[in-house]
Structure formats: structure tokens, C-alpha cells
Amino acid sequence: MICGRGCMPINLLGSVVGTFLAVSLLSTFHILRKQQQQKQQQNNMKAAIATGTENIDQYIHVKEDWPKPTLATAVDGKTGKLVSKLPNERHLIVKVLACALAPGDCRLFSGKTDLVQLPKWGRPYVIGSDLCGIVEEISSDEPYFQVGDKIIARFDEPQPHGMCAEYACVKARFSEKCPASIPATQACTLPASAAAARLIAQTLVKPDSRVLLLGASGGLGTFVCQYAKLYGASYLAATTTQTELVQSLGVDRVIDYRTENWWELESEFQDQPFDLVVDLVNGQNWQKGGCSKTKVLKKGKGTTYTQLISGVQTEINMTGLNMISFILGTMLGRPLYAKLNPWCPRLTFPQGLDLKPGDLKAILEDVAEKRIRVVLAPASPFGFDTASVRAAMMKQKSKHAHGKVVIEIAKEN
Fold it and tell me: Which residue has the higher pLDDT, 30 or 355?
């Protein structure tokens, strides 16, 4: 069809209009898709997650698309409920700067403690026990913390998870404001390990007491060395292979467990036996040493032997009948045997993670005023990528970290 001068053929006009509409729709689609992707990016974060058990190279990954927690969406690991539905528990959303690992991370990853440690939703879960970071979100009635505060925070016992990510949801009662002078890579080590060491020393170390520490160079042991001396120990012996390190932390006598058994050193210690044994290793120390009538310890109940239930052992089997054996043999059997056997020292299991108001603040002051120093494991802080996080977990699992294993999530400003 031909129209008058200046007119466009109808079929050509329709083609132009159709092309214009198609381009407009395609452009609108791309804009909406980009907006959706940006929204998803805002709602997601980078996180180190465990998707399975035991095999670190196969089941530890750093993902870019893990859901970012908010006070409205975060789920409590113990109850499986939204934290916003737990009115008696204050929570904070934290932008993580650094995360510390602990033996509990490896126990949970083993799959053999799921009954008590696995979060309610199961796997996958974010790894990591303790953190240092910046508060990003608080509830409207939060009385102490403010957005922008630098804090440290601990996991919710007995579930060591959730901290090795760009953001984490933490309980306010397990958190404390952190002085700017303490680097995040050091501060993140304090909420569990330093707190446990301080509690052991407060409770059990008496002025002028003689203390034997089994396992002095690990993440917890390096703090116990210092707090034992700070709380009055006059003499501190320790089993380790890291002589120079522990001597710098106040140890008077280093016992290399590869060449010496501490319970056989009677000629050296029988005239001045130990008042306290702090066993961070477990293994055969109680059976071969504590129950051996050794003259390294005082007769009968004159010596207190305090033992972490697990020590540095990164795997405890609490599955099936093993759970019954653990409860009857370790939790109940050992204390009963020690009580009935007149030759055995007094046996205690310390509540190392029993935080009281003011504990974390006091520890931060100890570090800030250089009464206590933080020891990081060689290669710490590790990077925040899959290969580096796997290496950090391997180091923790080795039981020979010689200090705290730390992963740096973000640089401090």
C-alpha cells in the first residue's frame, strides 16, 4: 500500500514499533534482573561452611551466596526458632573481622557429637567458634551495645559454629566491647580460650602453689600458663615440645613429653610435689599419671587434678553405645574411682565456659594492659578462601597448633 508523500508504509511502521517494544521489554528485563541480582547480593554473604563430615578437603567450602543473617531472619542453633522469637535473649548482628577456631570445631565436623553440638537445622552450617567484629544491627531496646561498636563474642555452648562468615548473629551476654588497641586477629581468640584459662586459675590456683600444666603450648595452654602465674603460682612446670615459647609465658620447668614421663620424675619433685595438675591433653595422663601413686603428686587428696573432659582431643565419639560409655566411664566413672581410691588425687572437671558478667571485660583489660599476651599459631591469621580455611581446619585438627588458629575475614579500618 502506498500513502501520500512523507507517509511510511504500514507494514514498515509496524515493524519499527514492534522492534521498539521488543528492545524496551528486553531492556526492562535486564534492569529488573540486575536489580534482583543486586538485592540477592545484599541479602547474601561470604561464609565458610561444612557440608559433610570428617573429610576437610571434600566438605569445607567458602561460599559467596550464603544467606546474610538479620535480627528478623537469624535462627537460634539450639531451638531452631527465629532469634526474634526469643524475647529473653538479646542478639546482635556483627560484621566479622576475624574468627578463631577451637577443638570443638573439629569435634562437630567429625559428626560424632551431633547429638549435642549440631545446630537444630543440621548441615550445612557455618563453622567458627569465636569472633571479633563491628556491631551492625541491634534491637530497638538494646541497653549496652551500639551500632559501630567493636566487640568480641563467643559461641553458644555447646554448639561451636556460626562465626566464620562476613556476618554473624551473636548473643549479647556472650559479647563485650573491645578496645581499639587490641587487633581483631588477637581479640577473637579471647572469648572462650582466655576465659576458660582465667576461670581455671581463679578457681584452682592458690597463692604460692606449685602447678603442673599438661599441654602448655596450645590455644588454651598458652593462656593457662600466664593466668596461673598471674593468680599466684610460685612454680609452674609444663609438658610441651615448645620450650622457648612456654618459657616466655612464665613456665619454670619444661618437660618434653617425647623423652620424659612427668609421673616418673620423682627424684626431681618428691620433696616439693605439685599442688595442682591442669590436664589439657587427656589421653593417658590420668590413667598412667594421676592413678599411679607417683610421688610427683602429694599423697591422697593433697593434689587437685583438674581435667578437661576432652582435652585437645579433636574427636569424641558420642554416637550410639559410645555415648553411654562416655557418660558412665568418663563423666561418672573417673570421679567415683578417684573418690573411692585413697591414692588418687582429687579429680575435678572445670566448667571452662561458664561466663559471668564482667569476665570478658576483665580479660580485655588484661590484654590491653599487657598482663596477658595472645599467641597465634604459625601461619595465623589464615586467609578467607577455601584453601586457606581448609588449611586452618587441618592445623586445628592436628592437635599441634602451638597457639590459637585464626582466620582473618576482613581488614580493620
Answer: 355
Residue 377 burial (C-beta neighbours within 10 Å; 0-12, 13-18, 19+) = buried
Q: How far apart are CA 283 and CA 316, in angstroms?
A: 12
Pair 213, 237: CB distance under 8 Å? yes
Whether 344 and 337 have beta carbons less than 8 Å apart is answered as: yes
DSSP 8-state assignment for residue 142: -
The H or E element that residue 36 is part of is helix 10-43
The three cell numbers of residue 80 are 531452631
Confidence (pLDDT) at 311: 53
CA distance 173 to 357: 8
Phi, psi of 208 (to 5 degrees): 65, 20
> What's the rounded Cα separation, in Å, for the pair 259 and 262?
10
Dist. CA 12–CA 231, nearest whole Å:
93
Per residue in 151-181, pLDDT (tens digit) is 999 999 889 999 999 999 999 999 999 999 9
CB burial of residue 413 (10 Å; 0-12, 13-18, 19+): exposed
Q: Which set of grid coordinates corresponds to residue 409?
A: 575475614
Cis peptide before 179 (omega within 30 of 0): no
* Residues 80-95 pLDDT 10s: 999 999 888 999 999 9
DSSP letter at 358 equals T
Residue 35 CA to residue 8 CA, distance in Å, equals 38
Which of 64-68, 243-247, 329-333, 376-380 bottoms out in mean pLDDT, i.e. has the lowest?
A: 329-333
pLDDT at 25 over 50: yes
